[in-house]
């Protein structure tokens, strides 16, 4: 019976959920994709070939059991599909929305390689968990037995929250400390609502809190509370702060030149209904301005699309390589172009004019020989400089780690030459006993799905550490 439901990729074409028209979606911050209807989700899931070696699963950082939950969806067994989906993924409803499936699961789908187009894995994953929340299948964590040990987690982003979930399910007492007034990290304040609506994040936060995870918000470690105090209070500590230090450009401190994280955070706060003086004054508001965004990653795409929605007069994105060599999602580039963003390829900033800023000095580039990463390195074309007018320039050049040992006054916490925390592969154990680290603060700026993986791995290592410590204490 199950076989009759599957292997329909020859007869059924790939379909994504319907996308809202650009003229409508750029007027608000609502998600641009509609939800699958049950029949359509079943139809699209039935395209899975149930191959013997599921490359979709092996190329997922979480190794999600994708073929099984696609089969269950095709058979209309949604609650079972949800149980399998959440067994390996703490936040399937979030990964289904923001994972770059074209580079991970869907990009390695066997039927894609055979010319039949990939299964819409991300859209089905989103549908399964959205349905689970709507039907009440997602319950607060209820451990079978409470443990006396406690773990402090610094950072309420995806890595910290994934670890909190895993530890609470084993009965560990968990306290999460975060600098912001809401949990979720970049999922809350970095990623715009048109990619991830905030009620999706907040419902997961509520589920964790209802399950006994304690949150201490508005807490800057090193200022409001010392790291030593946190370490002294708990049996183990996990550092999952992410990376927030913006990579900068020289001589870019004129009024009107801003960091991407500041711009996106303020925009998301406005979406929550907060009053933000920097937005009201126009400092971090693109309305009525010519906007230039510098960078080619997903953060740059978030900035250009946010600027459009805020009512910018024009939005241009400068990137020093060409479209094929851009690190950001090609799907996001397409969405941005549909909404009116202009991409200026092979263009790099070479300074700024005006105070406040009136323009970006641009150097035109060509691609030369490959660099150490294997990508063609951009080379300046002499005499092709020009000035791009702008009243708002947004620097979206990526993020670096903050100097955690210095900020927190921690002795003995080893870091790498890149400033990330030095931690054991898989376990996340650091140079300090009982202190672990996970996510971007270890691996550098990366994907939400990798942070989830790291958080889950570190939680397993912390459980082993707690058990070993208890065994030693009992001797």
Automatic annotation (TrEMBL):
NCBIfam families: gltD_gamma_fam. The keyword Iron-sulfur applies. Keywords: 4Fe-4S, Iron, Iron-sulfur, Metal-binding, Oxidoreductase. It comes from Yoonia tamlensis. This is Glutamate synthase (NADPH) small subunit. One of its GO terms (molecular function) is 4 iron, 4 sulfur cluster binding. Gene3D superfamilies: Alpha-helical ferredoxin, FAD/NAD(P)-binding domain. The keyword Oxidoreductase applies. The lineage of its organism: Bacteria, Pseudomonadati, Pseudomonadota, Alphaproteobacteria, Rhodobacterales. Residues 25-136 form the Dihydroprymidine dehydrogenase domain. Residues 151-455 form the FAD/NAD(P)-binding domain. Pfam families: Fer4_20, Pyr_redox_2. It comes from the Bacteria.
